[in-house]
Amino acid sequence: xxxxxxxxxxxxxxxxxxxxxxxxxxxxxxxxxxxxxxxxxxxxxxxxxxxxxxxxxxxxxxxxxxxxxxxxxxxxxxxxxxxxxxxxxxxxxxxxxxxxxxxxxxxxxxxxxxxxxxxxxxxxxxxxxxxxxxxxxxxxxxxxxxxxxxxxxxxxxxxxxxxxxxxxxxxxxxxxxxxxxxxxxxxxxxxxxxxxxxxxxxxxxxxxxxxxxxxxxxxxxxxxxxxxxxxxxxxxxxxxxxxxxxxxxxxxxxxxxxxxxxxxxxxxxxxxxxxxxxxxxxxxxxxxxxxxxxxxxxxxxxxxxxxxxxxxxxxxxxxxxxxxxxxxxxxxxxxxxxxxxxxxxxxxxxxxxxxxxxxxxxxxxxxxxxxxxxxxxxxxxxxxxxxxxxxxxxxxxxxxxxxxxxxxxxxxxxxxxxxxxxxxxxxxxxxxxxxxxx
Length: 438
Description:
- By secondary structure, the protein is an alpha/beta fold.
- The chain has three domains: 3-116, Gyrase A, domain 2; 156-205 and 372-433, Up-down Bundle (Four Helix Bundle (Hemerythrin (Met), subunit A)); 221-363, Rossmann fold.
- It is built from 14 helices and twelve strands.
- It has helices at residues 26-34, 86-97, 109-116, 122-133, 137-147, 150-174, 189-203, 207-213, 227-235, 278-293, 348-363, 374-395, 400-418, 426-433; strands at residues 3-7, 14-22, 45-50, 57-66, 77-84, 102-104, 215-220, 253-259, 262-268, 296-302, 319-323, 337-339.
- The protein has a six-stranded mixed β-sheet. Strands 8-9-7-10-11-12 form a six-stranded mixed β-sheet, with helices on both faces.
- The longest helix is centred in the middle third of the chain and has 25 residues, at 150-174.
- The two termini are 44 Å apart.
């Protein structure tokens, strides 16, 4: 195994920069830089670092040694805590490159080695990446939860159940002449049916992906309702052109915000009306498409011509809004209709709070693990598809070998989520559960 090194902190000036070295020659690399090998594990030492060839002083650094397997990668690891100047970091990196047996790490290689050495699974490694990329508190909480392994534990539990069921089916094939219970393969049907139902509920939940990638809120309504002004008010800047002329907004304009600790993209759309030109009509088509695809919609009217009919088909989770209430004495009112005047500022803060609360209500519930990546969804959908095939065969008394193959595909698919793709342990399950060859 090669010894690798790379900065563990982002490039740029700062108080401290960390360079990580991992592999069998980490100790000799430290000796080449500082004149002596590692001290006691996990004990920081102040050392002078020198270029291994010219012996020029590079920095006065804190040095830490983590002896494998008690390290991030599971290998011997040295961390160099340097002063965070660009010249310092570059000179130490250059010095490490002069040491035989060392090479610069590939992107993500430290985490990859940690997975290969069993420190955590693939989904937890992705949680670390998400934590680094987190911009909001909800993304941070979700990434920490995944990094701690809650999602991996769930997937491993599903996989273990599939492997166990596969062991029963394989036993029915391979040891048919042994003294085993009758209809052994058919006995797995209830458990697999319950597993499929659990997976269905999990796959229908898209909250994790929305928290990671962003929640889309579409502002929809007729021209001159104040949609662009609302988006600007929420963004606290002039993100969208505002004009008294109807039909100013011809395309969907997106503004990224943070609400209730969640990443939210608010979409300003073209005003909905009939009898307009080709260009504006295309904008209206896109507005309707955006509204259909959005996670949440704000349906907005001007108080001057607001009607209850406009809100008649609004979904329960969507928000209803009447703007320009300062222009009419008795604006349209109902318990579920927010009233505001963006021009005067009346009601804007209350509506922003209500919108944040609705987003939080929909997307932040409980601490259960969630799907956060397209890769996870793809593999779990493949697992569910193979499981459906096995269940269909089980219900009609299908060929046992075909049932086993479907279960094998299902176990492999869910195993790919966490990196556990070896189904050879099914033999251990067989011999543990049945006294074969007694």
